[in-house]
Amino acid sequence: MSVLADLIASLDSGELKIVDLTQPLGPDTPVIGLPPIFASSPGVSMDVISRYDDKGPGWYWNTIRMGEHTGTHFDAPVHWITGKDFPDNRCDTIPVRRFVGPACVIDVTADVAKNEDFLLMPDHMTAWEKQHGPIPRGAWVLLRTGWSKRTDPAKFLNVKTDGPHSPGFHRSTSELLAKDRDVLGVGVETVGTDAGQAGTFDPPFPNHSTMHGNGKFGLASLCNLEQLPATGAVVIAAPLKIVDGSGSPLRVLAISPA
Predict the structure, then answer these.
(1) What distance in Å separates the CA atoms of residue 105 and residue 144, rounded to the nearest whole number?
(2) Which residues form the catalytic set?
(3) How far apart are CA 187 and CA 140, in angstroms?
């Protein structure tokens, strides 16, 4: 009990702070696009049920419609074919302890400013570990790219004649994180956890395939990563308890030194 009391006291005193890593969710939220041969996810739509009117004089509420993987969202292992056969691989069955872990923030904003297709290589990760210490088992590895500063949806999705362009993880780095470091998962500021051109990679979408094929998670469309230290913060990323859910919009919170 003293640990929990100390936590609240540290939050009240300002010694610790809570950082919201979540993008606003609404009709203007960018949604990932797929080639026409595949089914696409809809954007967010909201319809008023009642708003202090004859349909409900004392209350306001809406219906909402969106894909599971919209806005700041969680990817469960069952989201990808490589993770479909794991036990407890869905939003309603994953043990809740696995939603909470230490954050390791890898800042590659300078690299991405020079190359929007930047891929995090194992050498980048080991260089980070030499400076900040080993990535611990059960960590959230968050790739800070500055991409969330792109508030124009077109620039955020960054689709060109040859498809979308955005940074991400090289396959070998995803394998190192999932297998050797045994992380909870990875988080990115982009619309998905793979690089924009990952559909052309061999194999396609290697971060999804590797992470979910090892029972790991993904967090996409994060923001405010610049407010976190490289190490020392704790991330809480709990999806909605959707029955058989492959993912979910969520509110990602970090507890960080002030």
Answers:
(1) 6
(2) 79
(3) 7
d(CA 244, CA 209): 19
Query: Rounded to an integer, what distance in angstroms lies between the CA atom of residue 198 and that of residue 33?
Result: 13
Q: Is 71 left (phi over 0), alpha (psi -120 to 50) or beta?
A: left
Nearest CA among 188, 183, 240, 236 for reference residue 212: 183
d(CA 185, CA 211): 7
Residue-wise over 163-197: b if at least 16 C-beta within 10 A, else e? ebebbbbbbbbbbbbbeebebbbbbbbbbbbbbbb
What is the rounded CA–CA span in Å between residue 194 and residue 166?
A: 9
Q: Among 116, 130, 89, 256, which residue's Cα sits nearest to residue 189?
A: 116
Q: Is it the case that residue 1 has pLDDT exceeding 80?
A: no
pLDDT in tens, 160-182: 999 999 999 999 999 999 999 99
Distance in angstroms (rounded) separating the CA atoms of residues 218 and 222? 11
Tokens 């954007």, located at residue: 43
Specify whether the CB–CB gap between 100 and 236 falls below 8 A: yes
Q: Please choose, from the candidates 244, 243, 174, the residue with its C-alpha nearest in 3D space to the C-alpha of residue 212.
A: 174
pTM of the model: 0.96
